[in-house]
Amino acid sequence: MSKAIGMVEYKTVSSGVVAADAMVKTSEVSIIEAQTVCPGKYIVIISGDLSAVNAAIETSKELHGKHLINSFVLGNPHKSIFPAIYGATKIEEVSALGIMETYDATSIIVAADEAAKTAIVDLIELRIARGMCGKSYLMLTGDVAAVEAAIEKAKAAVAEEGMYLDSSVIAHPDAKIREAIL
Questions:
Q1: Chain-centre distance of CA 17, in angstroms?
Q2: Which residue windows are coiled coil (predicted)?
């Protein structure tokens, strides 16, 4: 895995596609994901060396700043981020379930990275603005205390920008809920 990931979220598809093109022309980065998300916004997730990702994200922000919703650069992202984005995480048991929602797409990845680095938890899913009118959520599991600590740290990571929406921790969720989400 690369040393860094970065993401931009734009209000318009046109701005997002032009920004994605500029990012790969600016630096040696790979596009992990570039697509429309609800409600008609556009996200681009890139990876590469930290300096290359920083340069690409800055170019993107300068190019279409008026349409930019949010962005981030994470050095050394937690290894569980990508399986959770793609729904490829294999979870055997759920002692506690943590859920957190944000108002935008970029904040949820930052929150998930903070949560995963805070406590021994497993990210189950990161839903990035697909079918949620622009909101995003994460689900994670682990021991009750670990899930509580991870959710608190994730909340703090995005609350300053006003992107935190809601969160909950369920100790020992019912088997029917576990089956529905896993």
A1: 19
A2: none
Residue 86 to residue 108: CA distance in whole angstroms: 14
CA 138 to chain centroid, in Å, comes to 8
Rounded to whole angstroms, the Cα distance separating 107 from 124 reads 17
Residues 6+ apart with CB under 8 A from 25: none
| CA pair distance 65, 76, nearest whole angstrom | 26
**Taking Cα atoms as reference points, which of 41, 1, 15, 68 lies closest to residue 136?**
41
Smallest Cα–Cα separation from 111: which of 173, 50, 157?
Answer: 157
CA distances, 124 to each of 30, 66, 78, 83, 182 (Å)? 25, 34, 13, 8, 8
Residue 17 has pLDDT above 90, yes or no: yes
* Residue of 85, 88, 94, 90 whose CA lies nearest to 146: 94
pLDDT reported for residue 88: 67
Give residue-wise pLDDT tens across range 95-119.
899 999 999 888 999 999 999 999 9
**Tell me, what amino acid is at 161?**
E
Q: At what angle do helices 50-63 and 13-26 cross, to 10 degrees?
A: 140
Write down the residue that tokens 């622009």 correspond to. 134
Q: Which of 91, 95, 90, 100 is nearest to 143 (CA)?
A: 95
